[in-house]
Design a protein that fits this description.
Blueprint (H helix, E strand, L loop, with lengths): L1 E6 L3 H14 L2 E6 L2 H10 L4 E5 L7 H11 L4 E6 L2 H13 L3 E5 L12 H12 L6 H12 L17 E6 L3 H10 L9 E5 L3 H12 L5 E5 L3 E2 L4 E5 L3 E8 L2 E8 L10 H11 L5 E5 L8 H9 L3 E5 L8 H8 L5 E3 L1 H13 L2
Parallel strand pairs: 1-2, 1-3, 3-4, 4-5, 6-7, 6-13, 7-10, 8-10, 13-14, 14-15
Antiparallel strand pairs: 9-12, 11-12
């Protein structure tokens, strides 16, 4: 049995969520109407997983989360609205130590929450064995990056890409990307193209946030975009991204999400399209923390064809699913903790 504490100020939402878990079976359930009530319960009996609403009276979700991470560390899944404000709060929660998030399909009181039933159950099950990132590490990283001198970004001077670093990431991604990108220089030889499993409202906010925290220029790909050095291209949420050759230039092209792929934006689709237009030796694949196996099949193919690949090692992932799948396919050239991946990329690219 998985012990779940549901924290939401809406009695209706607490009932809807409780019903989902009861119908699935295998869960012990408790509820709390705000952050203070949740902390009081956790001091008496620790849950395996907490689902935590963001907007609550008396003590909101972010305040409650900060207390949980210090006083009662355990896996927390944030329950957020699909708004820009909700996206900002959710990204902050992930930096504070939340494992994952669930977006309400119908606003603050979501009568159609059952639409995301399967997503909720899979995320709670994954959270049980997850390793939440420590909040102080993210805070230190933000302080380090923010203290850097401003970087001059003359976009017109950047040459077109000759090769690509392809990054796939899901659960725990925002913090992992902050660490990876924060250690890469503005003059990195190849651009990075990133698929992060997120809705569109979230990827636009994430791109803007990352752009202010690293030397590379981070943009969300909302239209066909020629790829240049010194840039990170983040696939827009709820769509897929393909690499194509247009006018003699490598171009990131957003395309409608395909039912042929389980996750969106799809890392497998991104890598497969890149392999079609570039030789394997002009590609580096990086698979970071996340549920499932998105990216593993195509990055293993990239590796088998002579390309280089990196899987994040288990000890630094929030959820080891995606990199584990690559390792199990014997598709990883290197298995490295998150903090060592940027250094390996720099060394590889320097030797090209």
């Amino acid at each position: 049995m998985i012990d779940v504490l549901i924290v939401d100020d809406s009695a209706l939402m607490r009932r809807f969520l409780t019903q989902i878990f009861e119908e699935a079976g295998g869960y012990t359930l408790r509820t709390a109407r705000n952050g203070e009530a949740a902390l009081a319960q956790m001091s008496q009996c620790m849950p395996d997983v907490v689902t935590l609403d963001i907007n609550m009276p008396e003590m909101d979700g972010l305040t409650c989360l900060s207390h949980i991470m210090v006083r009662h560390p355990c896996p927390v899944i944030m329950v957020s609205s699909l708004t820009e404000k909700g996206a900002l709060a959710t990204l902050e929660a992930l930096e504070l130590g939340a494992v994952d998030y669930l977006t309400k399909p119908g606003g603050t009181v979501s009568h159609n929450i059952a639409q995301v039933k399967d997503e909720l159950l899979s995320k709670v099950q994954a959270a049980v064995s997850s390793r939440p990132r420590q909040a102080d590490r993210s805070a230190n990283r933000r302080g380090t990056v923010a203290a850097r001198a401003p970087v001059s970004r003359d976009m017109s001077a950047q040459p077109a890409a000759e090769g690509l670093v392809l990054v796939g990431v899901s659960t725990g991604g925002p913090s992992a990307l902050e660490t990876l990108l924060g250690d890469l220089p503005a003059d990195l030889k190849w651009p990075l193209v990133v698929t992060q499993h997120m809705p569109a409202t979230f990827t636009s906010v994430l791109a803007e946030r990352l752009d202010g925290l690293c030397d590379l220029h981070v943009v969300e790909v909302g239209r066909p975009t020629p790829l240049q050095r010194g840039h990170v291209y983040l696939a827009r949420g709820d769509r897929d991204l393909e690499i194509r050759m247009r006018g003699g230039k490598l171009t990131a092209v957003p395309v409608p999400a395909s039912d042929d792929f389980a996750w969106h934006p799809s890392a497998d689709r991104m890598v497969a399209s890149a392999l079609e237009v570039l030789g394997s030796r002009s590609l580096i694949g990086v698979l970071l923390t996340g549920m499932g196996d998105d990216g593993a099949e195509t990055m293993a193919r990239l590796h088998d064809q002579g390309g280089k690949t990196i899987a994040e090692s288990e000890e630094t992932t929030v959820v080891y699913g995606m990199p584990r799948a690559l390792v199990e396919r014997s598709g990883a050239s290197e298995v490295l903790p998150l903090e060592q991946i940027a250094g390996r990329l720099k060394r590889w690219l320097h030797s090209i």
